[in-house]
């Protein structure tokens, strides 16, 4: 496997507040990448900068060998770098079917629309039953499924999931985790932020601990790591 | 019979103009979340642009589509100059009220300087008159009554049955999510304004064909469109369309039975009553979004 995304010396934030400080990471060399770390330390900010929603103050982001640091979200989507943001409200008054059409909006995804829809139905059979239902009337878990399904319709080359299981009940959470595993097995590399460390360890051979807006520790495959060690990384030194 | 025909006809005619205006206002509100107070000026400018082409010798059948296209460009430019730079501000709704009012007044005075204060009139879409149910009506007005629902239906079909229309409805609901599926948000904002300005311009051309044009001819229709949108709910475009015709009929009935003088007062009385009972609009379902 080869590196698909490289972030180098990234500094970014909101207005005058800087959240990310000189952050560097890469993804793709070992497969899926997991990000974890305490709340409010910049994981979502990193992902929003990567997908172009936030402008980097300095540093560079390279996707598939090309510099995308200053590109618009639309251009980045056009390259196949697809981001499912944290707590995505999606489009409350559109139906699931509408969301799928929107997912396939970019010229790159359009030709694969039918094939991707089949994939979505296979991975999330629940959605197929409620194809015409409005997003606002869906449960939290179902909405999360629609968010990920919409991203799959965009024909991702790299899929970014920001806390896909946040706030879900155990049963639906397990279901969603299984779906994410299935997507990964289907050959789409992932970058995942997750609070559930078990799930993250299972899914991602490579992990980054994000703390105070920068990468504090990188865990590579082969480096055996105990759950308890991660917990101590989380909760203090 | 005469009363019925007169109210029917007057309602359909006024309702058509109101609907054409209100739909654009609602479209801009639902997609961008701002009120465009230059909307009445769009109406006026459409009529003047068409008049300019007509006075250059073009027949109205050609001047009309050309002016509508010009107005699309004007709408796009206005959006790019006084709305887009402000997007993301916390107080955007108020700020845009001011910037669009300012731009509108600039355009209004520009028109006054360029074309002068003398009233002008556009040729009718169709010449001639006829009598229906004992009421004399012009073919121009009948043409408007027939064309408007067709245009509104086309707009509805565009919004609900094309991918671009879907994109417009989406951007209204979640900007981040729209960007993350690769929608060109700024272009969609421009498109919403362009469509709104074209429809307003068309309403102006319709109006200029049976009434004298002045640089302030758009202010009353803007006010009416605002009332329509409050009546119908700003959350959709079908609500304002129904409300536009309802108000058209209400006005026609009022002016028939109580006279033109009392009509605005009665209209506002009903509006206030309705706001007390159903503040979200008669036809609104609580949610925001185009449909
Ligand atoms: N829109 C915003 N405007 C200003 N500050 C923001 C904004 N969004 C996030 N922040 C701040 O940026 C910092 C990092 O937030 P971020 O959402 O990236 O953290 P996170 O690691 O994803 O946290 P969590 O695990 O809770 O999702 C926080 O201090 C937060 O308050
Ligand atoms: Mg987060």
From TrEMBL, chain A:
GO terms for biological process: L-amino acid transport. The keyword Transport applies. PROSITE patterns: ABC_TRANSPORTER_1, ABC_TRANSPORTER_2. PANTHER family: HIGH-AFFINITY BRANCHED-CHAIN AMINO ACID TRANSPORT ATP-BINDING PROTEIN LIVF. It comes from the Bacteria. This is ABC transporter ATP-binding protein. It holds the Pfam family ABC_tran. SMART domains: AAA. Residues 5-237 form the ABC transporter domain. Gene3D superfamilies: P-loop containing nucleotide triphosphate hydrolases. Keywords: Amino-acid transport, ATP-binding, Nucleotide-binding, Transport. GO terms for molecular function: ATP binding; ATP hydrolysis activity; branched-chain amino acid transmembrane transporter activity. Belongs to the ABC transporter superfamily.
UniProtKB/TrEMBL annotation, chain B:
GO terms for cellular component: plasma membrane. It holds the Pfam family BPD_transp_2. It is found in: Cell membrane. Belongs to the binding-protein-dependent transport system permease family. LivHM subfamily. GO terms for molecular function: transmembrane transporter activity. Keywords: Amino-acid transport, Cell membrane, Membrane, Transmembrane, Transmembrane helix, Transport. The keyword Phosphoprotein does not apply. This is Branched-chain amino acid ABC transporter permease. PANTHER family: ABC TRANSPORTER PERMEASE PROTEIN, BRANCHED-CHAIN AMINO ACID TRANSPORT SYSTEM PERMEASE PROTEIN LIVH. The keyword Acetylation does not apply. Its main location: membrane. CDD domains: TM_PBP1_LivH_like. GO terms for biological process: amino acid transport. The chain crosses the membrane at residues 17-38, 50-72, 92-116, 137-159, 187-210, 222-250, 256-277. It is a multi-pass membrane protein.
């Amino acid at each position: 496997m080869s590196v698909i995304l490289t972030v180098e010396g990234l500094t970014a934030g909101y207005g005058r507040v800087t959240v990310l400080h000189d952050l560097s990471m890469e993804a793709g060399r070992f497969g899926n990448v997991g990000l974890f770390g305490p709340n409010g330390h910049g994981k979502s900010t990193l992902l929003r900068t990567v997908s172009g929603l936030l402008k980097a103050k300095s540093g560079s982001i390279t996707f598939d060998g090309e510099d995308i640091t200053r590109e618009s979200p639309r251009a980045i989507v056009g390259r196949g770098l697809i981001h499912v943001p944290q707590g995505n409200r999606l489009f409350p008054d559109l139906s699931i079917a509408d969301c799928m059409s929107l997912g396939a909006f970019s010229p790159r995804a359009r030709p694969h629309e039918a094939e991707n829809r089949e994939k979505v139905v296979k991975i999330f059979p629940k959605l197929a039953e409620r194809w015409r239902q409005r997003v606002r009337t869906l449960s939290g878990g179902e909405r999360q499924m629609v968010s990920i399904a919409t991203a799959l319709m965009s024909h991702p080359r790299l899929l970014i999931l920001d806390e896909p299981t946040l706030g879900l009940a155990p049963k639906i959470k397990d279901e969603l985790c299984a779906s994410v595993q299935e997507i990964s097995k289907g050959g789409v590399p992932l970058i995942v932020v997750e609070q559930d460390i078990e799930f993250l360890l299972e899914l991602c051979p490579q992990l980054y601990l994000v703390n105070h807006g920068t990468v504090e520790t990188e865990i590579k495959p082969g480096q055996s790591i105990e759950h308890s060690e991660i917990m101590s990384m989380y909760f203090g030194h | 019979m005469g009363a019925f025909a007169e109210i029917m006809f007057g309602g359909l005619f006024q309702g058509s103009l109101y609907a054409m205006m209100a739909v654009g206002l609602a479209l801009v509100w639902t997609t961008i979340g701002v009120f465009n107070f230059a909307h009445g000026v769009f109406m006026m400018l459409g009529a003047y642009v068409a008049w300019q082409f007509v006075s250059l010798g073009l027949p109205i059948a050609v001047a009309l589509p050309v002016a509508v296209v010009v107005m699309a460009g004007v709408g796009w430019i206005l959006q790019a100059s006084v709305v887009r730079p402000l997007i993301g501000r916390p107080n955007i709704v108020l700020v845009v009220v001011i910037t669009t009012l300012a731009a509108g007044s600039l355009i209004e005075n520009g028109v006054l300087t360029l074309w002068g204060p003398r009233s002008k009139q556009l040729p009718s879409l169709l010449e001639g008159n006829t009598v229906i149910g004992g009421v004399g009506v012009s073919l121009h007005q009948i043409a408007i009554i027939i064309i408007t629902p067709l245009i509104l239906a086309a707009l509805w079909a565009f919004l609900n049955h094309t991918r671009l229309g879907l994109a417009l409805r989406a951007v209204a609901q979640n900007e981040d999510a729209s960007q993350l599926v690769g929608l060109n948000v700024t272009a969609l904002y421009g498109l919403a304004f362009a469509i709104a300005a074209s429809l307003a311009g068309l309403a102006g051309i319709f109006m200029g064909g049976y009434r004298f044009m002045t640089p302030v001819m758009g202010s009353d229709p803007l006010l009416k469109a605002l009332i329509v949108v409050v009546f119908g709910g700003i959350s959709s475009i079908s609500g304002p369309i129904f409300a536009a015709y309802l108000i058209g009929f209400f006005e026609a009935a009022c002016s028939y039975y109580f006279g033109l003088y009392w009509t605005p007062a009665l209209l506002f009385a009903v509006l206030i009553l309705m706001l007390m009972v159903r503040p979200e609009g008669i036809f609104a379902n609580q949610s925001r979004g185009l449909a």
